[in-house]
Amino acid sequence: MNTTSLLLALFVLLLFAGTTWAIYRYSEDYWSDRRRRLTCGGLSILTVAFTVFAYYSDSGLRATTLYEVVVNPPESDEYVVVFETESPDVAHDLLVHPLTRPLEEAEEPIELLIVLTTQDGGVLLDTAHTFEVEEDLIVDRSGGVSTKVGKWDSETFHFTPEQRTSCTLKLTLTAGPKPQLHVRIADPTKTDGKRAPGY
Questions:
Q1: CA 187/CA 84 separation, integer angstroms
Q2: pTM as predicted
Q3: Strands, DSSP E only, in the chain?
Q4: Cα separation, 166 vs 140, whole angstroms
Q5: What is the per-residue pLDDT across 34-89, written as a single tens digit (0 to 9) for each?
């Protein structure tokens, strides 16, 4: 049993349980007994379902993580990540997500050339991708809707190694600012993976 996933599930459970209790406790003067019971009963079922979902989804992500890292911006335009594969002929997932710094917003797209090779020179992935800026619509105090520039989107790529091998992932910035990059490689057959600190 994954301790981090269990703690996350307990947090969700306590959050929903506290909300349910507050509704039952403080709605006495406004709602009928029947409405209070139905509402709190529905929230209780939702609490259990969402807690189970939170545990298994987080636990699954952790278990299948082969390698995960947040790469700081290099001096050059090339990010390099080296990792070892464990499962030949199994389709792996490669998540790439440019990150914004705290209190900063993404203002323009980022273009990366993504090349993944094995130690014997085999090419597992060779593609270019543009990470667009996701815009969030927010409502200000006056009731008007304004557009807030948010963060870069993420993208998942797929590759299948033919053998256990060392792999080198090179991500070359071809356009846009130079961010941190969150990189996660997932092996669906793995059961004892660990996530990077903070995830």
A1: 11
A2: 0.67
A3: 65-71, 78-84, 92-99, 110-118, 123-131, 133-139, 145-152, 155-159, 166-175, 180-186
A4: 51
A5: 776 677 677 667 766 666 665 555 555 667 889 999 999 888 899 999 999 999 99
User: What are φ and ψ of residue 67, in 5° steps?
Assistant: -155, 140
What are the distances in angstroms from CA 6 to CA 19, 24, 45, 58, 150? 20, 27, 19, 9, 31
Token output for 121: 């020179």
Task: Choose among 8, 9, 18, 6: nearest CA to 43.
Answer: 18
Amino acid at residue number 80: V
Per-residue pLDDT of 66-78, as tens digits, reads 999 999 988 889 9
What's the rounded Cα separation, in Å, for the pair 98 and 171? 11
